[in-house]
Amino acid sequence: MYKLSISLPMIMLLAAAGVSAPQPARADNLLVNRVQQEKGMDLPQRGLSMAQVEKKYGAPQRKLSPRGGDSQKHPVINRWDYSNFIVYFEHSHVIHSVLNTPAGNNKNPASVN
Fold first, then answer.
1. Would you report the helix, strand and coil content of the chain in percent, each value rounded to 5?
2. How far does Cα 60 stand from its chain's mean position?
3. Which of 4, 37, 49, 74 could bridge to 68 as Cys pair (CB 3.0-4.6 Å)?
């Protein structure tokens, strides 16, 4: 028969390992909250043209500099900044709209212009 011998340092190490078990990330919770909030909002839908977005939501506060366009695999992406959301266009059609929230990384889109 084998006798199991555990020393005090080993017990402390095992206890510490249990305390430092992975915790759910706070960022995950914030992202889930933002996605749920976006579902309840009237954001520009995928496929709308720039003209349709401007007609329905008015002129954006600013139109950020286009990105991409260096190849067919990297089309021109335009970004329009509204007070509560940003609209991303591929060429001239909406591909995505996101909230301007502290939970996101888009608090100050002009800083990446």
1. 35, 25, 40
2. 20
3. 74
